[in-house]
Amino acid sequence: MAIAGHWPQGHYGCCRVIKQELTVRCFSTLLLVLLALPLSAQTYYPPRGDWAAVPPQSLGVNSAKLAAAVDYAIASENPAAKDQAIVQATTFGAKEPYDQIIGPMGVRAAANGLIIYQGKLIARWGDVDSVDMTHSIAKTFLTTVTGLAWQQGLIRDLNDKVDAYMPHGTALYEGEHNSQIRWQHLLRQTSDWQGTLWGKPDWADRPEGKTPADWPNRPLRTPGSHYKYNDVRINLLALSTLYVWRKPLPEVLNQQIMQPIGASSTWRWYGYDNSWIELDGQKVQSVSGGGHWGGGIFINAWDLARFGYLFLRDGQWQEQQLVSKDFIAMARTGGSANAEYGFANWFLNPGRKALPNAPETAVTFQGAGRNVIYIDKDNDLLIVTRWIGNGDELNQLVGKVLAALPQ
């Protein structure tokens, strides 16, 4: 007879086998349940106001190498003036006509950034709460909002001519040349639109020609055939998208992207002093797609990280597919006029020419200064680095971070 708390040897062996079988069955059941869950249920998404931080070594990351990468980012700060108005005057303003600042500018913080690996924060440096100009990363926010219009049927086809979507009396796309422009051309910076918007002629942005007399007489290219980085035409995309949405683009961005991803309330998206239109009886400001003449998106590193993390997770946040996977596939595909550029501002890495240390599949959203969101699905890695040097510094930083990850 067995005594409470004591099993004869034969019964103990039987009990041990039963216990092992139950453990295996429970583990198998749990595994099946986890596999049956949607990806969003297994993936970490940072709640509003927080991002889980873990010791790097807990994820197999070499702490010493990671620290060296952070030290490099800090030491590689862009040496240009922190006052962005001074930078504008001494760069674009030194070689462009119509260089007057017509939107807000700011004085930036020192170099700062975040490194997210497998969804968790493993490193940070500098004042990541500073709300600074992000310059041309604003273009990526803009093309995302245009993509939402396509996703929701306000734009039927990105190959449609834009003129068909403009209200009566809008002369933006009149004429034999401009009437051929399609949404795809604006998104890829291949529209070659000719005209003046908000007091800035298209030719005055990064002017072409041997002498200033050549600038206004630039050659016309068939829309879609020639890539040209041009903020006047990006601002045209912003105005055209505003006419489609019929409400301020910052409102669309906030409601459909920034609030769902848990962004802070501190970011702002500005236009110019003279970029106001009357829309359905209301005065509405058309925003800018960068900080070339001021304006654009002012934002902190945390919110940039959330925006980048949304695309690291293929446009999904928790249970919501905020950005269409089809749109993302188009955005990250190089155009015929520039294989290294998708939709603005998706910088691609074919042949690893732009970033030799990164995989070919890596994508960056970049703005002047240098502001960068680095998205690396192959390594489940996200880097936000602000105010790093304009040369090979980004490539070197990426190489140092990748060297710290488990090999």
From TrEMBL:
Pfam families: Beta-lactamase. The keyword Hydrolase applies. Keywords: Hydrolase. Residues 129-384 form the Beta-lactamase-related domain. The keyword Protease does not apply. It comes from Rheinheimera lutimaris. InterPro entries: Beta-lactam-related (IPR001466), Beta-lactam/transpept-like (IPR012338), Diverse_Enzym_Activities (IPR050789). This is Serine hydrolase. GO terms for molecular function: hydrolase activity. It comes from the Bacteria.
